[in-house]
């Protein structure tokens, strides 16, 4: 197993060598046509990236040389220098020096001294003539002995990996089918081949998933700058702490949560953290603290944005929810803080300016929520008034395979993603009560509404569900407790089947219009199995409850 | 010489261009779809009923790894009352609509039929009376004593039209967001 350090160095090397190739190419273009702006811009960009990467990896001298070169290309770009005269050989030797330094890093050797070059670069910046020694000589030496190298790393378009992953998904569905068939047919040779196929596809699946993993740090490391800019704009003093950059997650998942995370961080600085004066008055250190952290939690990745700001005023949110008619005043009074905070994610709720001012939270939190929902993840918020707020994003590591609970309803199989499943219980009818037309079950000191899933799925397009009656319930009821946005809902199903990893295929047109289903999967038996979308199901229940 | 010959041939081809239809029965009439719009014809696979869909959407089925919606055009076009369910063995035409594949369930084995393009007549206006919007009726072909209504699947309903989905407050807003 390679260490992280080594892996980073390999990535640095691959990129640096590519930059080296690019700069060698572009500087030749620039020499032929000193007015070639595209080549100049590329050189500037490549130097800038190399500088940043070099410094991040602790190769200060590479950073130093790249910085000097970048400055001069910047001057050429702003027409303060021209790419001509004595500047040309210095720049060429600079690129050769960078190439030597990069190769030295790759070989694990000390990088050569570049003080002569750096001095010349400095002179050029100051507008003085560089002192050219035997530069011509060394340049030709370099040319003569130069080795051509190919990178150990391959850049690949994420699209290609997506395609690969889709194919693996299809393969797994067929594999499960073959495995089931082989058991039915009972031929030992077929069975052992099927078992082998199972192992290989398993390996293949994890290899493809692994190839898509990137470090959370690749996103997190963009935040120091964001935090600085927002803090300056908001006149806040913020210290950002980043934890767990090494946690790995599927690249597309990271892509999808980028905006959500940006939103949460901006919110935390803009609304969560107080200005230094206010903080001092409240007896807190003047500097606000913001933590971006990632950690693995079972199979999931937990990303948290924590601030030590003013927190969420639950009572204001409660009041607002009643005013907006999301809940009756009576019901609101009985809601616990968590359930009240869940209102912040209601579409439109957070958009209201007043709420933002009162609670100090929430422009577009529903957008964050939707991004997380689309991944089958969970978004939670915890907050202590006056002490701070934590937003937690629970994300799957990979989008390909999801754990799901399979159950039967009207002799058909359905699946519910485990991400949204809280628990499963079997209750006798007399363990449930009808409250206001809705069945309620008391599970672990919590009152949870329970609905017959069949009734909910087949409810009329308009009109509410009929009031629940216990007389419809015969015998023990299998109930799946789902959890969405801190709202728990019990679903009565005919029978629990099993827990299984499933590959979810998106619903094809025109059925993708039905949002109750997040997709379909094919079971080993070849049967089509609908995957329920818990967020949509919860919304349906809220709209239809009697 | 050769040139005139080839143009002459072209003319002949143009006049008598044959098209191949897959002909099937809906209600009491025969309908046809151009063969290039039909992906395959198969015995109807096991259909999983999908809640929250109109009755004429029979559900979804696994057709060689593709999950497609299966619809009953007889019910959609009200050519058969909903109280008469489909019975026994049925067949499914997997048809390429605009940007998706959809399955059309029929009661009898669909048959291929070649007809000259020229005998397809444009549908008269009053065709709307039988509940099929004329925009995807390409025309009507009279073959011997048979009348075949030729459908143009590419102009068939949009997904919204197929699903008969009205913009509903709750579900539509949820849809818009996804």
Automatic annotation (TrEMBL), chain A:
Which intervals hold domain CheW-like?
Answer: 401-543
Q: What positions does the domain HPt occupy?
A: 1-105
Q: Which residues form a coiled coil?
A: none
- Which Pfam families does the UniProt record give? CheW, H-kinase_dim, HATPase_c, Hpt
A single GO cellular-component term on record = cytoplasm
Q: In which domain of life is the source organism classified?
A: Bacteria
Tell me the InterPro entries matching this sequence: Bact_Chemotaxis_CheA (IPR051315), CheA-like_dim (IPR004105), CheA-like_homodim_sf (IPR037006), CheW-like_dom_sf (IPR036061), CheW-lke_dom (IPR002545), HATPase_C_sf (IPR036890), HATPase_dom (IPR003594), His_kinase_dom (IPR005467)
Indicate where the modification Phosphohistidine is found in the sequence.
Answer: 48
- Among its keywords, does the record have Nucleotide-binding? yes
Histidine kinase domain: from which residue to which, for each copy? 196-399
Q: Does the keyword Kinase apply?
A: yes
Recall the GO molecular function terms of this protein's record: ATP binding; phosphorelay sensor kinase activity
GO BP terms in the entry: chemotaxis
Q: What is its EC number?
A: 2.7.13.3
Which reaction equations make up its catalytic activity?
ATP + protein L-histidine = ADP + protein N-phospho-L-histidine
Q: Which UniProt keywords apply?
A: ATP-binding, Chemotaxis, Kinase, Nucleotide-binding, Phosphoprotein, Transferase, Two-component regulatory system
> What is the role of the protein in this entry?
Involved in the transmission of sensory signals from the chemoreceptors to the flagellar motors. CheA is autophosphorylated; it can transfer its phosphate group to either CheB or CheY.
Q: What is this protein called?
A: Chemotaxis protein CheA
From TrEMBL, chain B:
Which domain of life does the protein's organism represent?
A: Bacteria
One term under GO cellular component: cytosol
Which BP terms in the Gene Ontology apply to this protein? chemotaxis; signal transduction
**Domain CheW-like, which positions?**
18-162
The UniProt entry, under InterPro entries, shows: CheW, CheW-like_dom_sf, CheW-lke_dom
Could you say which residues form the signal peptide?
Answer: none
Could you tell me what this protein is called? Purine-binding chemotaxis protein CheW
């Amino acid at each position: 197993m390679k260490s992280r350090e080594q892996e980073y160095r390999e990535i640095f090397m691959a990129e640096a060598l590519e930059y080296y190739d690019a700069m060698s190419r572009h500087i030749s273009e620039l020499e032929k046509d000193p007015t070639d702006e595209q080549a100049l811009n590329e050189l500037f960009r490549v130097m800038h990236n190399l500088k940043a990467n070099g410094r991040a990896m602790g190769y200060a001298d590479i950073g130093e040389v790249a910085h000097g070169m970048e400055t001069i290309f910047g001057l050429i770009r702003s027409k303060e220098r021209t790419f001509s005269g004595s500047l040309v050989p210095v720049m060429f030797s600079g690129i050769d020096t960078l190439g030597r330094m990069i190769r030295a890093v790759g070989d694990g050797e000390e990088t050569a001294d570049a003080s002569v070059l750096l001095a010349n670069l400095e002179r050029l910046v100051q507008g003085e003539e560089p002192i050219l020694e035997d530069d011509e000589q060394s340049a030709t030496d370099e040319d003569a002995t130069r080795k051509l190298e190919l990178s150990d790393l391959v850049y690949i378009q994420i699209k290609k990996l997506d395609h690969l992953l889709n194919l693996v998904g299809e393969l797994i569905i067929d594999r499960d089918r073959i495995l089931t068939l082989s058991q039915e047919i009972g031929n030992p040779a077929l069975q052992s081949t099927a078992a082998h196929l199972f192992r290989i596809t398993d390996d293949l699946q994890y290899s493809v998933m692994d190839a898509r993993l990137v470090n959370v740090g690749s996103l997190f490391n963009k935040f120091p700058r964001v935090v600085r800019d927002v803090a300056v704009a908001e006149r806040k003093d913020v210290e950002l702490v980043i934890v767990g950059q090494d946690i790995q997650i599927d690249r597309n998942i990271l892509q999808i949560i980028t905006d959500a995370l940006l939103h949460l961080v901006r919110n935390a600085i803009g609304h969560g953290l107080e200005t230094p004066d206010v903080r001092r008055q409240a007896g807190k250190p003047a500097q606000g603290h913001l933590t971006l952290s990632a950690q693995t939690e079972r199979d999931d990745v937990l990303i948290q944005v924590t601030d030590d700001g003013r927190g969420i005023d639950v009572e204001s949110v409660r009041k607002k929810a009643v005013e907006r008619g999301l809940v009756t005043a009576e019901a609101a009074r009985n809601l616990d803080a968590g359930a009240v905070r869940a209102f912040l994610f209601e579409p439109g709720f957070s958009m209201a300016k007043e709420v933002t001012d009162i609670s100090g939270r929430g422009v577009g939190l529903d957008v964050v929520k939707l991004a997380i929902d689309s991944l089958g993840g969970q978004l939670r918020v915890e907050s202590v008034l006056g002490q701070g707020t934590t937003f937690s994003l629970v994300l799957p590591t990979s989008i390909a395979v999801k754990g799901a609970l399979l159950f039967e309803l009207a002799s058909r199989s359905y699946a519910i993603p485990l991400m949204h499943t809280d628990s499963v219980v079997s209750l006798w009818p007399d363990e449930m009560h009808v409250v206001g037309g809705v069945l309620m079950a008391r599970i672990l000191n919590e009152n949870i509404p329970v609905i017959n899933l069949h009734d909910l799925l087949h409810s009329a397009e308009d009109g509410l569900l009929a009031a629940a009656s216990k007389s419809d319930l015969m015998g023990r009821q299998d109930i799946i407790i789902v959890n969405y946005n801190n709202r728990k809902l019990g679903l009565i199903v005919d029978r629990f089947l099993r827990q299984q990893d499933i590959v979810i295929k998106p619903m094809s047109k025109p059925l993708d219009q039905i949002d109750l289903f997040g997709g379909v999967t094919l079971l080993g038996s070849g049967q089509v199995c609908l995957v329920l979308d818990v967020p949509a199901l919860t919304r349906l229940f809220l709209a239809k409850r009697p | 010489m050769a040139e005139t010959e080839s143009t002459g041939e072209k003319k002949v081809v143009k006049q008598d261009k044959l098209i191949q239809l897959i002909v099937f029965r809906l209600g009491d009439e025969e309908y046809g779809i151009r063969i290039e719009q039909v992906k395959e014809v198969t015995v109807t696979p096991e259909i999983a009923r999908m809640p929250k869909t109109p009755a004429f959407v029979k559900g979804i089925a696994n057709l060689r790894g593709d999950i497609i919606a299966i619809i009953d055009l007889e019910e959609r076009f009200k050519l058969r009352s909903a109280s008469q369910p489909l019975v026994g063995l049925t067949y499914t035409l997997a048809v390429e609509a605009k940007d998706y594949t959809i399955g059309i369930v029929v009661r009898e084995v669909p048959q291929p039929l070649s007809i000259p393009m020229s005998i397809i007549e444009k549908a008269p206006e009053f065709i709307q009376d039988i509940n099929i919007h004329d925009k995807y009726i390409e025309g009507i072909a009279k073959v011997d004593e048979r009348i075949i209504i030729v459908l143009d699947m590419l102009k068939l309903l949009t997904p919204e039209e197929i699903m008969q989905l009205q913009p509903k407050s709750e579900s539509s807003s949820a849809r818009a967001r996804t």
